[in-house]
Amino acid sequence: MTHRIPPDRGGLFQSAIAGLVTTRVGFVASFAVVLSGLFQVGASVEQAASGLLILSVCVGLSTMVLSLRYRVPISIAW
Description:
By secondary structure, the protein is mostly helical. It has helices spanning 11-40, 45-70. The longest helix is centred in the N-terminal third of the chain and has 30 residues, at 11-40.
């Protein structure tokens, strides 16, 4: 007798939550280091905010593009 395995209905949701948690932890862990580095090279508050915004957008886009391209969860660290 064969048993049917029910489809995993929560897989996408769990993957999305895992990705959000990983992104948040990675961002918060290195935020102070990157911000300190930007100030050390003479960036103003506005320049540091712009640099963090661009860096965050690039990391997010590269994570999404690579994950969609290779069809596996990928996390990019900065």
